[in-house]
Design a protein that fits this description.
By secondary structure, the chain is an alpha/beta fold. Helix content is 48%, strand content 15%. The strands form 2 sheets. Strands 9-8-7-6-10-11-12 form a 7-stranded mixed β-sheet, sandwiched between helices. The protein is globular and about 65 Å long. The model has no long low-confidence stretch (mean pLDDT 98). Bound molecules: NADPH dihydro-nicotinamide-adenine-dinucleotide phosphate. The site of NADPH dihydro-nicotinamide-adenine-dinucleotide phosphate has 23 residues, from helix 9.
């Protein structure tokens, strides 16, 4: 057995049942094997064995009282995966599906993504099986305060800087920041995704979606294609999906469908983004409400079927494993020529294989959704110098970062004999920086 196979077998044995984590490790390992033939020193230094074992895993009880006076208990997680190139950095996911395997997959991915941004940030992730949906503001606040009452011991601006993810937006970050500040008696840049009034960065909310579209646009331009005029399907209607839609509109693309976990809406003439923002960001309602204003739009009660809609470009921006091989076949047969991942690991390995075999322009999430964490790093820079940059300054930097990521991973893919395979490029480029830092720091 080869080095990657040995380590993978050990991961499967030591972490039973953590399916998403297994999938993420397999995905990275499948494209970095060539590195160990050229650089045996990584194997000698046990880099992979160390990389797959989180530096620290924190699992804790989160008790809180609901509006009826009933005691509820959730499980909290923070996985501090790798700090070789900087403090742990990665979001907090609040969703009933959250478990250890999901947080570990996200933390593992984050190591390579953060490395690709070019900033000094390590990989981490956290969250809870708490579901903010259907809870009152008071309940969300009580949960967030209880969550932070435990988490505050393990984080800090030079140690670990969490951010948002599914279910964690500005409201949740605000409650967590308030509780951290109270417990530590310190106003410091310990969370990113904060509101502008207390240290947030302009454009952080938009950053993942905008960055995704900048990345996809650059990828298309290299092949003589354009977003302008393209018909685009976006899954999800949360933070990433909405701001991807906004940038696509600015660039002249047409978003024909979006979804939430209940279903999807479709209008071949293009969806009204403002209406979606009202439903999702202001009223906090379901996407079916779109039909109240636009009765001719189609609503289908099965969000999975969104991939049956004919489109030029597909942007999965909801959750992991939302495009399987069947969906990928349908997209390819319907003439889709590009797929850009806004979500983390939204395509199964079988789906990715189909895209690559069919020469679909495929942007892996590690690279294409790195704009969010990159602007989080910019938020950390602004916090440490107590300054605030203009939206134009942040946007300019975001564009440069996304363009550099594409250049870097394209070059790496070519160097390793797999031109245009951005999966290989992203995994190897992300890995090398972290591995070299680990080598330099000795066995720690
Ligand atoms: P939000 O909570 O703002 O939105 C998530 C969207 O996806 C909602 O429309 C939600 O629908 C839908 N969704 C969530 N889970 C499921 C599911 N199991 N099945 C179907 N639909 C689902 O999250 P974000 O937009 O922040 O995150 C979306 C993805 O992007 C995640 O994979 C996240 O890890 C990734 N990401 C986010 C970044 C960020 O900066 N926010 C940065 C990089 C990656 P519903 O409302 O019905 O639950």
């Amino acid at each position: 057995m080869g080095y990657t196979q040995d380590v993978l077998s050990n991961v499967l044995e030591k972490n039973p049942g953590e399916l998403e984590f297994h999938q993420a490790v397999r995905e990275v390992f499948s494209s970095i094997e060539a590195v160990f033939e050229i650089y045996p020193e990584y194997e000698k230094a046990g880099i992979l064995e160390r990389l797959v074992e989180p530096e620290r895993q924190i699992i804790f009880r989160v008790p809180w009282m609901d509006d009826e006076g009933k005691i509820r208990v959730n499980r909290g997680y923070r996985i501090q995966f790798n700090s070789a190139i900087g403090p742990y950095k990665g979001g907090l996911r609040l969703h009933p599906s959250v478990n250890l395997g999901i947080i570990k997959f996200l933390g593992f991915e984050q190591i390579f993504k953060n490395s690709l941004t070019g900033f000094s940030i390590g990989g981490g992730k956290g969250g809870s099986d708490f579901d903010p949906k259907g809870k009152s503001d008071a309940e969300v606040m009580k949960f967030c305060q209880s969550f932070m009452t435990e988490l505050f011991r393990y984080i800090g601006p030079c140690t670990d800087v969490p951010a948002g993810d599914i279910g964690t937006g500005a409201r949740e970050i605000g409650y967590m920041f308030g509780q951290y500040k109270r417990l530590k008696n310190a106003f410091e840049g310990v969370l990113t995704g904060k509101s502008i009034e207390y240290g947030g960065s302009l454009l952080r909310k938009e950053a993942t979606g905008y960055g995704l579209v900048y990345f996809v646009n650059n990828m298309l331009e290299k092949k003589g294609k354009l977003i302008k005029g393209a018909k685009i399907v976006i899954s999800g209607s949360g933070n990433v999906a909405i701001y991807a839609h906004q940038k696509i509109k600015e660039l002249g693309g047409i978003v024909v469908a979006m979804s939430d976990s209940n279903g999807y809406i479709y209008d071949p003439e293009g969806l009204d983004l403002n209406e979606i923002k009202i439903i999702k960001e202001i009223d906090n309602k379901r996407i079916i409400e779109y039909k109240n204003k636009y009765p001719d739009a189609r609503y289908k009660e099965n969000s999975k079927e969104i991939w049956k809609i004919k489109c030029d470009i597909a942007l999965p921006c909801a959750t992991q494993n939302e495009i399987n091989s069947e969906d990928a076949e349908i997209l390819v047969n319907n003439g889709c020529y590009a797929v850009g991942e806004g979500a983390n690991m939204p395509c199964t390995p079988e789906a990715v294989k189909i895209f690559l075999e069919n020469k679909i322009l495929y942007a892996p999430g590690k690279a294409s959704n790195a704009g969010g964490v990159a602007v989080s790093a910019l938020e950390m820079c602004q916090n440490s110098t107590r300054t605030q940059w203009t939206a134009e300054e942040v946007d300019k930097k975001l564009k440069e970062i996304m363009s550099n990521i594409l250049k870097n991973i394209s070059m790496t893919a070519k160097e390793y004999g797999e031109e245009d395979n951005l999966v290989t490029g992203a995994n190897i480029a992300g890995f090398l920086k972290v591995a070299n830092a680990m080598l330099a720091q000795g066995v720690v």
